[in-house]
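Student: Send me a single protein entry containing the residue sequence and its fold in token form, directly below this note:

Tutor:
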Amino acid sequence: EPDVTIVSGLKDMVVFEGDDVTFQCQVSHENARDVEWKLQDVALQNNEMNEISVEKGKIHTLMLRKVTEQDIGTITFRVGPHTSTA
């Protein structure tokens, strides 16, 4: 299985409380396994507040809905041994 790397990393974002914010990370190969999103070292699951999706097989997207002050912190995207933070 090829080593999947991060082609385009996360960008820092500034948003207002109550807004949605989207983070994107592009990887080198489609159908990457061992992918994880974290907020302050807490793994995020796909639910009504966190929308996790993959577009065109390589663009991994995390949308945080209606962010609050508790959502301030570091977002981490990990694929295998590679990480990107914002």
Observations:
- The radius of gyration is 13 Å.
